[in-house]
Amino acid sequence: MKKYDFVYADISAASGFLLQESIVQKIRGAVGMERILFGSDFPVVFASDITLEVNMVKRNPHLTEDEKERILGLNARELLKRVT
Length: 84
Fold this sequence. Notes:
By secondary structure, this protein is mainly alpha-helical. It is about 45% helix and about 5% strand. It has three helices and two strands, in the order βαβαα. Strands 1-2 form a two-stranded parallel ribbon. The longest helix is centred in the last third of the chain and has 19 residues, at about 65-84.
């Protein structure tokens, strides 16, 4: 992601990784939260659902409100504007 500005990552079924402060700090330092997207390929994880995954992001103590908004939709809107 560092090398190419048009590469994004998504956290579908992996939002639990963002509960680790060290991972959040690494993402911020490496590429920023502006290229992290929520959701695709869902539901994949047993005993999980979309509401649980969204709430994991919304209630994450390591993300700012701006980062939460970006991950849950703003980043996707900005990406789609670039490709249309």
